[in-house]
Amino acid sequence: MKPVPRATSLRRVPVQRRSAERLTRILDACAELLDEVGYDDLSTRAVALRAGVPIGSVYRFFGNKRAMADALAERNLERYTERVTGRLAGAEGEGDWRSAMDAVLDEYLDMKRTAPGFSLVDFGNQIPVGSRYAEPNHRVADRLADLLSAYLGREPDEDLRRTVLIAVETADTLVHLAFRVDPAGDEKIIEETRRLLLAYLGRVLD
C-alpha cells in the first residue's frame, strides 16, 4: 500500500485498509487537479468528484484544500525518502558521499518531472504551512542528514545538519530556477547546481 501522510495534517488517521485506500485516492486526485487547474482553482468538491468519493469523505480527513495540499507535500517527502533510501541501498562504492548526493539530486529531479502535483507543491515549499521550525526545507534537510549520516557511517551532528540544510536551500532555489527557465529543467543550470553542491560539500565531507 502507498504511504499515507503523517497524522499532523489529518483530521482523522485511517485505521482500516479501505479508509487508507480512500485517502490515497483523494491525494492522487488532488495531485492531478493541481497540475490541471492550479492551487487557486482547486476545490474539495472537484477532488471528491475526481477521486470518486463523497464530499464528506474529503472533510473527514481535511478541513480545507490547504490541509490537503500539505498532506500531499508530506506524502511527497515520504516517497522521496523511500526513493533515495533505495538508491543508496543499491549504490556501488558504499560510503562515497558524491554518489549519495547524485542520488539525492537525481531523485528530486525525477519527481519534479514525473510526479503529479509535485511541480507546484513538492515538499510544501510553495504552499508553506505551520511554524518556521517546521518549514519544508528543514524537514527535508533533517531527513537527508539522517540518511547521509547512516550511509557515510558518521554521527548526524549539528555541523552536518547545518551543512545539509544550506545545501538543500541552495539546491531548492537553483532547481526552481532551472524549471522556470525550461519546463523540463534547464540542463546547464542543473549541472552548475550539481557542481556547486559538490564543491561546497567537499569542504565538509572530504
Describe the structure.
The structure is a single chain. The chain is mostly helical and about 210 residues long. Helices cover about 70% and strands about 0% of the residues. It has helices spanning about 15-35, 45-50, 55-60, 65-90, 95-115, 120, 135-150, 160-180, 185-205. Helix 1 crosses helix 4 and helix 4 (about 65-90) runs parallel beside helix 7. The longest helix has 25 residues, at about 65-90.
Q: Give the ordered list of helices and strands.
A: HHHHHHHHH
Q: Approximately what portion of the residues adopt beta-strand conformation?
A: under 5%
What is the tally of beta strands? 0
Instruction: State the secondary-structure class.
Output: mainly alpha
Mean pLDDT comes to 86
Radius of gyration: 18 Å
Q: In DSSP terms, counting alpha (H) and pi (I) runs of 4 or more, how many helices?
A: 9
| Largest sheet features | none
Which overall shape is indicated by the principal axes computed on the Cα atoms?
Answer: globular
Distance between the termini: 39 Å
Relative helix content: 55-70%
> What are the low-pLDDT stretches, counting only 5+ consecutive residues below 50?
1-7, 128-133
Would you summarize the structure shown here?
By secondary structure, this protein is mainly α. It is built from 9 helices and no strands.
Descriptive keywords:
single chain, 206 residues, 69% helix, disordered N terminus
Write the layout of secondary structure elements.
Elements lengths: L16 H21 L6 H8 L3 H7 L3 H25 L7 H18 L3 H4 L14 H17 L5 H24 L5 H19 L1
Helix pairs in contact: 1-2, 1-4, 2-3, 4-5, 4-7, 5-9, 7-8, 8-9
